[in-house]
């Protein structure tokens, strides 16, 4: 058995895009519509000399904010149970949300390694501006990445490798 890495975050933050980049496949459906239900996807990944199981979590049927917050909270709690390592993805283009704050509160309860990832930082020029609202979450480290354009991806994977 190998470590399980779970991608968590609200719909549309780019979980499936990151899943596809890491697995170098197109197995997770990237959907521009927030809240489209997708199954969980599991794929065994070999990254350099490390092996892990990557899990992409789907969206929900409805997207009223309260339903979504509950859903994300449940997702986060399930990830804490299932995962050895958690990637909590947020949307740097959209900015920090109340759901992000709630999930961070839940994730603080675990000792498992958590990567707080701000996605959609598409170039170095965007990094300071897109990252800055997320510092209010009070986490020690934020990973600025662009799942779509590859920015920050190699450092994120190096960080992951160190935990495996
Ligand atoms: P998920 O619902 O969290 O799985 O998100 P998806 O991977 O389906 O992506 C949702 C939308 O965000 C799609 O339109 C993607 O093209 C877009 N997206 C994903 N990653 C990035 C990124 O790094 N930068 C930008 N600008 N858009 C992205
Ligand atoms: Mg998805």
TrEMBL record:
Family: Belongs to the TRAFAC class TrmE-Era-EngA-EngB-Septin-like GTPase superfamily. EngA (Der) GTPase family.
Organism classification: Bacteria, Pseudomonadati, Thermodesulfobacteriota, Desulfobulbia, Desulfobulbales
Transmembrane segments: none
Known partners and oligomeric status: Associates with the 50S ribosomal subunit.
Protein name, entry field: GTPase Der
Residue ranges of domain EngA-type G in the record: 3-164
Residues of the full protein shown: 5 to 168 of 447
Name of the gene: der
Sequence positions that bind GTP 1: 9-16, 56-60, 119-122
Record function comment: GTPase that plays an essential role in the late steps of ribosome biogenesis.
């Amino acid at each position: 058995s190998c470590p399980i890495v779970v991608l968590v975050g609200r719909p549309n933050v780019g979980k499936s895009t990151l899943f596809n980049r890491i697995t170098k496949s197109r197995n997770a459906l990237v959907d521009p519509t927030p809240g489209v239900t997708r199954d969980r996807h599991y794929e065994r990944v070999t990254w350099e000399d490390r092996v892990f199981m990557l899990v992409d979590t789907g969206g929900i049927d409805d997207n009223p904010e309260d339903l979504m917050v509950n859903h994300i909270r449940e997702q986060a709690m399930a990830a804490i149970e299932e995962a050895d390592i958690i990637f909590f993805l947020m949307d740097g283009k959209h900015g920090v949300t109340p759901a992000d704050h709630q999930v961070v509160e839940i994730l603080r309860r675990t000792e498992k390694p958590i990567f707080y990832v701000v996605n959609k930082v598409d170039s170095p020029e965007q990094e300071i501006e897109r990252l800055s609202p997320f510092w209010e979450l009070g986490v020690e480290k934020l990973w600025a990445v662009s799942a779509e354009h590859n920015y920050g991806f190699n450092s994120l994977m190096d960080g992951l490798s160190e935990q495996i």
